[in-house]
Each structure stands twice: as structure tokens, then as C-alpha cells.
């Protein structure tokens, strides 16, 4: 074989020529902000840049010029044009490209939160800006995970940071990122592909942004979903990250935002190829999803909304979480009416259950006129509620061998010869694309126990959204009420998602279904009780399922256990041992709930006054790059430099010290806002949505339960334990202000001691 000659000098010369031509094109390109006033005074700013590994911000200084008037604004923020000189890297040897001054300064957009016509320089305004930067980096993290699967089109997010104008009064802070100009390969400019409140752009028919959002959910074990995907081509900006515990600010709609997304998400061949499981939807939900050609390159006319200034659209839904997701009735419900409803619920519970028992043999009244397919779907769903969800090959739209199943449209029954030829060509095209996807198909994503728990939460919230009349278009025309009117929401979809949530051990869903199974009302839907047949055995099984739920707050488990105890009491078939077991578990859960509340209060108190921008603090637990050898060892921070960029670490193993820059230090503690959110996750629905789940109200007071347990212990002959329990019940009643009850219980305790 002839030896291939290699001229190193010629290659280097060719490379230099290419670089010069690229630089010349960049220099010759017209500045889209050529009208920028370059005579503006330059200002000194402190740049806060986020370091993902350490989960902290570090600072440096730079110089910028920024216009005094915003060029556009949204509902909450004003956007200013800004120029910043390109800073050459420290290792650069040729600074020629960086020596053009302000005439070649880079274009940036600086966004500031406003109070009236003034920039918000308060602590909350600063925190809001830093949160926006964190969101960008959080989205970048999941974009990297997505790109590791080698999708047909890789994505990226602009790098963002915060600038603090330290020489201005109040030292206001701006969120800053590069200005995106131009169009994608299809001639389209800036587009919003989906939002944090469920909008999915069907006109532009892009698969990649939607599949990325779905992938971020499963890749994060169901704890995150990147929404508000928008930008030019596959370069995105200003996302909103939805979390299972509402930790990412006012735009984070939590699991309800995730539910809104999956309600609109259409599973595609790209999702199949990347191993993303199918999110189950009810038959009526699938019917209302718009049909579209599953083609990533299709272009359609621009929506009227897309004609709005893109920066105005960025703020459209940032302040709408509570109003958008609350029930209309919640907006006018007072605390006193909630308390009245709770007392009525407790007092009538046994009566309602006993009435349901008497009516069990009679035909169950049906409020809605439903088709046979609706009835069948409800029966199938109810049977699913008591079985564990299995993620087998069918959940990933794959064959048993693991091969992806081809998605395609069936040929029309009535077609002429020309349309048949076109259909055949279309199937050949799809088959070719499918083979390409199958060849590079990723293995099915791992569905962890944490993912299952969070999926159950999303299904539960989707049922709640149906119950609050969020999707009237899903109600089929064939369904009518007793008066002939259409119901306000689709009860079939409510039951479908509640049962899927129950199959994933979602405690609130199990509780809602159990209440419906005994004829009690539920906060999820007023139609639920009348359209779910009474079945006490299923109700008891659902209560047990709720009590067995992992990573659930104590409240729904306590309510489910109380309901189970009441059913057992009314049936009269349960033995003393079983009743004691249930009561002891309820009291244990109540103690757990008190501990959870105390932990939250202590954590919030310990974090008071600590900002996202504070960086490392003395005492923080970290891992540090020992002797810069690439191996990280645990230790704690013993000193931090004045600018926050140098950290002194004391290593745990030998007590030695090392001083490192923060990029070589990793936090072993969550960032402040993450730590607080993680601890308060169990309160997030109530705090974020401003509503209480009346299903989760405990049906008995703790002193009542303690007294019942004491009576049962007395019945078994254990007088010493019964006396102790009566005395504890007396103290609990006294704390609750029930003095008469406390006296009676104390007397019972004393009598047993004689």
C-alpha cells in the first residue's frame, strides 16, 4: 500500500486560512444592534456566575454599557439592550480579535424585575434574578443528559449569569444572556414550543422540544420537567423547570404543571427510540388530542400569538400559578366554612357508611348517562387500582425482543390509485426513518421506585385538574346528566387517572377512591361518589394501600387509617387485635407528622438570611480535589476568602488543610433553596396552590384515638397499659382545650390504678 504523505505545514496553513476567513465573516457581519448608543457611559458590574458542581455562585468584575430605556417588557420584567466587551481567555496568545473595543462588543439582553417603573433592588428581587440563572443551569443539566442519547437533533441552552450594578443606588441586579438573532434551518425565528401550564405547540410540529421535556421528567426520576422551551432552532433560553415540590419559584406549577404537559404530549417515534415510556391517557383524552403528521420538518403558518415580541411572551405565565390551578370554589371558601365542612364530615361519616351498607344490594344510581365503552373503561380502571403498575416492553412501545414498534397511519379505506401510491410512498418513507431510529434506539429508560411515586403524583393531579373543570373539551357529547345537560368534566378521565395513581401507591389517590367506594364525597370531583360503585372490600384494600405508601406525607395515610378503622367499627367483624394494630399505626403516624412539622420549622429557622449568592460558608460539608490530583475527599469548610472564590477545606480523614478555588470543591449539602424545598415538600400543595385537601383531614382527634386504644387494651386485661393510655389521652384533650373530656379520661386512668 502506498504511503500517504502528510504535510504538517500545509495543514496548519490551511487551518489558519479557515480561521481568518471565519473571523473576517464575523467582523463583516452587520451588527443587528448597530443603532446602539456607544457613547453611553461604561459601568462597573459584579458578575455572579453559577458553578453547578459546587452549587454556588462565584464573582468577578467586568465592564458593560447598557441603555437606560427598555426595548421591550413583559408582565414582570423589563429588557434592556447591553454591550459587553469580549474577554479573551487567560491562555490566549493572540488578542487581535478582542481589540476592537465597543464597536465589536457582544450583544446581550439584560432582564430586570420591576416594581412599577423602578427596578426591584430588594432582597426578593435579587433572589428572583438568581433563581432565573439557576433555572437556566438546571435546564442545561438535563439537556446534556438528553444529548448523551445521541438524538437526531441535539439541543442547548444559552449560558446565563447575573450582573449587579454596584455603583448604582440599591445595587440592582439583572439576569443576562446573549442575544439570539437569526432563524433556524427551516426559516423560523424565535418560537415557544411549550409552556409551564400545558401549552404544546402543534402548529410548528416539532418533536425534539416536546420529547426533551418528557425525557427530563424520566431522567430526573420524576422530580423535574423542563418546560417553557423556546428559542431559535434548538438553541433555547429562559426555561421554566417544574419540580415535584414547587422549589423553582412562582413559575413552577409543580406536579400539576407536569400533568398539564403530559395531557398534551403526543408520544412519537423519537420518544420510542429514546426509550421514553408512554404516559397513559384515557380514551376521551386521546380522542381530543389533535391529529397531526408526525414529521419534524413540517412548517405551517405562524400563529398570531407568535407575532408578539418574544421577550413579552417570556413573562406571560410567570405569575399565574395559584389562580390558574385553583378551583373556582376555592377562591371563595373561607376558613370557617372549611372548618364547618370538616366537623360535618366527621360527624356524619359513620352514618353515611352504614347507609351505604344498607344500599349495597340495591342498584347503584347513575347520575350520568354513559356509553358501554365508558362503563367498561371505568371497570377496567377500578380493577387496575389494586394492582401494581408494571413497566414491561409494551409500556415503551416495543416488542418483547426490545425492537421499537413502527408508528404509522393506516391506509384509507376509500382511496383512488393515486392516493394509494402516495400512501405507499409515505409508508416507505416512514419505514426508512423507523429503521434509522431502530438502529440507534436507546435502551428503555430505567423506571425507579422514585419515578413511580412521582408518576403517581402526576396522575393524581391530572385527575384533580379534570375534577376542577380544567378540560371541558374532553367531555364527550354522548354523556349527559339527569337533566339532559352535559357534565362540567369527564368523570371517566378522573377515575382513569386516580386508578393509575393508586396503582403507583399514591396515598391521596388511594384515599379519594376509598372514600368513593364507601359512598363518601371527595375533594377530587363531586361526580366521583355517584359514579363509582360501593365496594367495602375494595375500600379497605385501598386504605391499606395508602397506609403502605412510601415517601408520602403522614396526612393522607392518617386519614386512610381512620377511614379503615371506622369501616371496621361499622362492620363489626373486626377482632380486637386488628383494631389495636390500626389504632397504634394511626397514633404512630400522628407522631411522625408532628416530627415532620418540627423539622421544617427548624430548617427554615437555620436558613434565615442566607442567600443563593452567599457561596460557601464555614462549616459546610464538601468534597475537595485533594492536592489537585483529581480525587475528591470529604471534609468541611474552615475558611472562605473575601471574594468567595477561594475555600480552605479541612479533610475528614487526616485533618489536613488545603486551599482551592471553588471549581475544585463540591458541595455535599443541597443549595439553600433546595434544602428548604426538600424539607417542605409535604406542604407544597397547600402552600403553592393556596388550598387544603379536605380528604386529608383526620376524622378523629388524637385524644379520641388514644382513648379508644385504652379501652381495647383494658378489654384484653392489660390494665397498666390502659391506664397509661387514658392518662396520655387526658393530657392531649387538655392541650386541645377539652377540659371536661380530660377530666373524664383522667378519672378512668386513676380507677385502673387502684
What are the SSEs and their pairings?
Elements: H1 8-28, E1 43-51, E2 56-66, E3 72-73, E4 77-84, E5 106-115, E6 118-119, H2 123-147, E7 156-157, E8 160-164, E9 173-178, E10 191-192, H3 208-219, E11 224-227, E12 230-232, E13 235-236, E14 240-243, H4 254-264, H5 269-273, H6 283-288, H7 310-314, H8 321-325, H9 335-358, H10 372-384, H11 417-439, H12 449-467, H13 491-503, H14 507-517, H15 528-531, H16 536-547, H17 554-571, H18 576-606, E15 621-625, E16 632-640, E17 646-651, E18 657-661, E19 665-667, H19 672-679, H20 684-689, H21 702-715, H22 719-735, H23 739-753
Parallel strand pairs: 7-13
Antiparallel strand pairs: 1-2, 1-8, 2-4, 3-4, 4-5, 5-6, 5-9, 8-9, 10-12, 11-14, 12-13, 15-16, 15-19, 16-17, 17-18
Helix pairs in contact: 2-3, 4-12, 9-17, 10-13, 12-13, 13-14, 14-16, 14-17, 16-17, 17-18, 18-21, 21-22, 22-23
Give a short overview:
By secondary structure, the protein is an alpha+beta fold. The chain is built from 23 helices and 19 strands.
Features:
13% strand; 23 helices; 19 strands; 6-stranded antiparallel barrel; 754 residues; alpha+beta
Can you walk me through this structure?
The chain has 23 helices and 19 strands. Helix content is 42%, strand content 13%. A hairpin with a 5-residue loop joins strand 16 (632-640) and strand 17 (646-651). A six-stranded antiparallel beta barrel has the order 1-2-4-5-9-8. The chain has a five-stranded antiparallel β-sheet with strand order 18-17-16-15-19, with no helix packed on it. It is α+β, with helices and mostly antiparallel strands. The model is unreliable at 291-311, 316-347, 361-366, 410-415, 608-612 and 670-684 (pLDDT under 50).
